[in-house]
Amino acid sequence: MQRRDFFKKGTTAAIAAGVIPLVASSCASTQDVVYDRKLDKWYHLGTGKTGMPSRKKTIGYDVAVIGGGAAGICAAVAAARNGSKTVLVQDRPVLGGNASSEMRVHLNGVNQLNNGEAERETGIIEEMLLHNRFENEQESFPIFDHVLYDFVVREPNLTLMLNTQAVDAEMKGDIIKSALCWQATTEILYTINAHIFIDCSGDGLLAATSGAEYRTGREGKAEFNETYAPDEPDGWQMGATLLMSSKDMGRPIKYSPPSYVIKYTHEGASLKRKFAGYHEGIWWIEVGSEGDIIADFEVNRHKLMGYLHGVWDYIKNSGKFPEAENLALDWVGSLPGRRESRRFIGDYIVSEKDMTEYKQFEDAIAFGGWSLDEHNPGGIENISEPPSYFHHHFDEVYQFPFRALYSKNVSNLMFAGRNVSQTHIALSSSRIMATCALMGQAVGTAATICNKKNILPREVAQKHINELQEQIMRDDVFIPKRPANDPNDLARKANLIFGSTTLSGDAKNLTNGISRDIDGAINHWQSDGLSAELQLEWELPIALSSVEIKCDTNVKRNIMMRKDSRNDDLYGNAIPPEMLKSLSLEGRVNGVWQNIGDIKENRTRLIKFKFDSMNVTAIRVKMTETYGAEHVKLFEIRCYA
Amino acid sequence: MLSKLNIVIILTFPFWIFFQSGSDVSNNYDIKIQHTFYVNHPGEKEPMEVVLIEIQNKDSLPIQYYMDVKSVICLEQVCKVIPVRIFWNNIGEYQNYKLKEGATLEKYEADLFESEDYVKLQSILSNKNSPFKEVKLDEVLTVVDETDFEDVDAVSGATALELNENDTVAGAALTCYTLWHWANGNMVALIKKNTTETVSNEQLLDFLNEKNKDYYLLALNELTKRKVYGEDFTNAVLNRVFKDANLLRASFKYIETAPKSIYFSVVKNIFERGGQEQKIAAIKSLHASPFEISKAYLDLFCVQIPNLKSFQEVMVFLELMQSRNANSTKVIDCTIPLLDANFLIARRTYWFLINENLDTLQQQKVEAFYIKNKDKL
Lengths: 641, 377
Ligand SMILES: Cc1cc2nc3c(=O)[nH]c(=O)nc-3n(C[C@H](O)[C@H](O)[C@H](O)COP(=O)(O)OP(=O)(O)OC[C@H]3O[C@@H](n4cnc5c(N)ncnc54)[C@H](O)[C@@H]3O)c2cc1C
Known about the structure:
heterodimer, A: Jelly Rolls, eight-stranded antiparallel β-sheet, B: Leucine-rich Repeat Variant, seven-stranded antiparallel β-sheet, 7 strands, 44% helix
């Protein structure tokens, strides 16, 4: 749908559909209510004046990111940090998308490969999850909302607009000129102009209204030679889910279902439809669609409310769960979390074999490794099938290419999250939130490259992919099988690098461009005890103004936001003990060591010292404390002029 | 933890079956000492009374321990409890388990252990870092009926406890949990403590030479406590650190508590005979030492300068001399030639020398170096 000039010409049904539902008015037309305030009879008792409230605003940014889930937050923060004036438009009162307190889906990533270990995502998503470990020890989802809020609003270059929905794109040729956004809480219609638009909204309304090509449903086997695709294409999309949680009241608690319950009996259900962990919600209470899943949303939401209570009624009252006697529902979702709808078409469509055969992409910018976890067609309305087919589990992480993250036909539009250019089967793995977040960081960074060079995303793919990859790796994203090789990194030019002691690895590894132990190789240096020092020597004095270190946070153990607070070898529920806590940096000037900076309470894997440029012949990092580990482990050090 | 001690001679002994290879020394020696402890097991609310049997050889060296425990913590008295005998070596490392002849372990719903399950149980119990270390009892109890652990979407864990197939015996997580905590839990420290307190100094010396590092570390701790620094002991330590630089830190902790003269002689020995890491560790120890260090002692170190191969060695050497032996003519004499060494070493030496009292000739050398390299300083 191209944008029409409806201010002048009046509204159309299509536009009304976008704007009106938020206006809560039953008899007025959109135009009357929102745009044309002639009938507004506001008498202000304070000033004694009569007039019209101003309800239209136009604002401009370098980058506009739509949707504040994991993908959108990372896109916006990446764009802002790299120097773009950025706005993040989110239609809910909270950030986090499916992981917000409104839905409470576990924010997962590559939680476990076939080797039994995690291969955790780093970069902005990790920083967010670490922030959560500090600020939300109680692992509360409502607090997680505020942690994310803090994470976003503290960015100087980033404006957050909550309760604001992007409803329409205004086009100029194949370029989105502005996004029309409705802020429900203020009755304001914003026109947001930007050079680059990034749709991370899952459903992708803005992208759809811009005319960007997209598809829904399942590809047939033949199109991409996918083993797990159906023989013929069809319209099925994985469903949305309402979660819940219950608590033990210490005494028997009665439960009677509400009027809208849909009875659940579990008769004929697949054995794989399990109840274990049900007190934290059941993910297979799921309703999808073969048709227009977005249009069906309200009908499906109502059904999900009914199924949720039906299943809980079964748990409480069937007699099959005696241990549930003391349980009472403590929280129930009202806004279903979505898994699938539009997938926009880019210059490349990622499909099953790219993942299962670990295709190497020149333009790899992210990775994934959750299993091919395709839920059954029909969801809870087809219980004889297992709720998901875990078709394939990965031995290692797969790459995700940049060409799947910008529109084929709308030239300043990128996307990240579940709505990207991929098949239904590929989505069954890549939809996991931390994977979406990596895509987000890549497009946010690419947007800034576009702005700095005044180019469009396709040109980044074709001419500047190396620069994009180097920048995201500098910002601590890991790209499998693509070591960093930043020509500006002066640490690589050091004549000597060594640690004061070495328990494992080698200080030389810290400039090899691989920022984790992977593929059977050690890429770290680990001290023997604390305190420990790392020193770099250059034969010629060099001017430095920043030193960047990547310390260990144990990427083989998850730190995700979950309800179950698991704490074992695979999941930790606290700050990773390996993380470096206190350190200082010194530079040697004319043979004398000078203090450059001290960090006492470090909270991130990527540790940055920024300082006024100085000429040094050596630097020395003194590390005195971790969050518990006896030795300190580093993966990288970089130095920049 | 309370403990009682009884020395008993056990004559009769029922026949137990080993499911794993492992030597049973328990019948070859007569001295068995019975210890009674009250210990916590994470599956039990109250501390439990347990009887640990220590087996000593004829030299009164504890060589093995064992204890009989129940195969599962049984909360509702419905499960079949099988006695299991757990064996440790003398420093509390789990070795193997035995069942009475004819006894079999059970899984959930009365399934019996298959022969491969016994093997797997042995490997689970041998893994000090098994997931059972962190898992909570209620997590184990929720899943006794889960035999397949799948990936799960969202609310995870369709199971409260997701373990790799290799990490548990399916259907017998509770048995694994119970036995793992007996084998690797609080008993380990009790055994270690008992052994260290029982052994003689001579036996500690043997520990210093044991291949297994844990013996070495345990002996160092105990020798520090006993303040034993005889030559046999320090020589054993020297031998060890020359071979394995990863033992330097713990070894220096011990050496640094020795009387001054022993300390100085051992450190010098390490410096002279050790490789790069040993040399650096020796210098750093001296640098931080609370003892006053004589000039004569430090001057002797100069002899080694030609053997300092790396920048790191030279750097720590010069730092030591700068702070604890400044303006030593001997040191200055032997460092001047380093101005002709590789550039990084030469530059570091230059910065050392400009802060020392030099004679005219030396000063000229230093100035010449400056003129030649002033852009690189
Ligand atoms: C029940 C359930 C279980 C799942 N299990 C897991 C799991 O265990 N782990 C995991 O990581 N993933 C899981 N997923 C998948 C995952 O949650 C989604 O694939 C993921 O959230 C997609 O990320 P996103 O950032 O693209 O979208 P979202 O998280 O949906 O975020 C998009 C945001 O954009 C907002 N938005 C939408 N339209 C607009 C608009 N027009 N204007 C402004 N804002 C808009 C939305 O309100 C939302 O907040 C599950 C999904 C569901 C429903």
